[in-house]
Amino acid sequence: MRPTVRPISAAEHLAYVRAQRSVSFLQTPAWGGVKTEWRSESLGWFDGGRLVGAGLVLHRPVPRLRRFTLAYLPEGPDIDWTGELDVWLDPLAAYLKAQGAFAIRLGPPVRTHTWSAAQVKEGLADPGVERLTDLSGGPTGPVGARVTGRLRDAGWLLQSPQDGFGTGHPQFKYEIPLVGRTEDDLLGGMNQLWRRNIRKAAKEGVEVTVGENLGEDLGQDLKAFHDLYVHTAERDRFTPRPLRYFEGMFAALSAEDPERIRLYLARHQGDLVAAAILVRVGAHAWYAYGASATEKREVRGSNACQWAMIRDSLAVGCDVYDLRGITPTLDADDPHVGLIQFKAGAGGQAVRYTGEWDLPLRPTVYRAFELYMRHHMRNRGR
């Protein structure tokens, strides 16, 4: 089979997504409506008249090079990564180059390694272990290694840096498998602190509700979430997204599917103590954003929110609850280590994916883009 690539409508793309067990929410047609600073298009791979693969492409012009774009497929495309990659990626490159792309960036949804929560715990306790990759985590199978090797051989350039976070999406993630498990199984897989915090939240009377995805109610709930999220950003020293970003995210994703995105709110005696956003596509659920109050941390609203989202994901038949990005550090002196400590407490496993890769289509323009990005990152760090 040598599929051909051509644009498809949002409706065709959505029908394809709904026919799959799971596709990244970053590869749904609605995500193009969230990333308004990019021009988006849906592409399909066809075997004759049959749609056999799909991807959302985000086109971003580069300052001073505006006639050319970077074509980005975050956590995609959704194709058969187990087969010969050139039959899928060569027609993609030919199409995008003809459309004015100077490079393609994609993130294959393919795992290469996993580490159990027990292995992560042992690594955190061992001063001689500094990174996940120092542990004897087993490869997930031949596909991850084969994809990595074939991309490199075909001239693709790995973009994921040492800490797992680049200009795009993280290479290392934390996931809780749900298939064949019960709530008791999931609680049993958590560490003692997580179980104690979930019980503590219940004993203190923390109530978790789901915001209505309609009209004024969502507006009020989302504003309450955003206020708490800005507070969290100030405390934890990161740059928050504006309220309009989340308003656009809920509008676009909810229009595509009413069950696509949900807002969880944990309150104690009327005070909002934690909030989180859950996204679901098919059998995959993601914890996308979270926020927590500095006051009343002892009532453990964040654990209550997580447990509610995990239970709801299990109840609707999800295969996995995805806590999203981590850095691979296990070094007690690294300020990022708290992230993996918190997530590993929930059980599950740390996962390494193949990372994000660039294919230069116009090498001279691509080198100019790299120089621009290095200059931009240096200035941002000042």
TrEMBL record:
<dbReference type="GO" id="GO:0071555">
    <property type="term" value="P:cell wall organization"/>
</dbReference>
<dbReference type="InterPro" id="IPR016181">
    <property type="entry name" value="Acyl_CoA_acyltransferase"/>
</dbReference>
<protein>
    <submittedName>
        <fullName>Aminoacyltransferase</fullName>
    </submittedName>
</protein>
<dbReference type="GO" id="GO:0016755">
    <property type="term" value="F:aminoacyltransferase activity"/>
</dbReference>
<comment type="similarity">
    <text>Belongs to the FemABX family.</text>
</comment>
<keyword id="KW-0012">Acyltransferase</keyword>
<dbReference type="GO" id="GO:0008360">
    <property type="term" value="P:regulation of cell shape"/>
</dbReference>
<dbReference type="InterPro" id="IPR050644">
    <property type="entry name" value="PG_Glycine_Bridge_Synth"/>
</dbReference>
<dbReference type="GO" id="GO:0009252">
    <property type="term" value="P:peptidoglycan biosynthetic process"/>
</dbReference>
<dbReference type="Pfam" id="PF02388">
    <property type="entry name" value="FemAB"/>
</dbReference>
<keyword id="KW-0573">Peptidoglycan synthesis</keyword>
<keyword id="KW-0133">Cell shape</keyword>
<keyword id="KW-0961">Cell wall biogenesis/degradation</keyword>
<keyword id="KW-0808">Transferase</keyword>
<dbReference type="InterPro" id="IPR003447">
    <property type="entry name" value="FEMABX"/>
</dbReference>
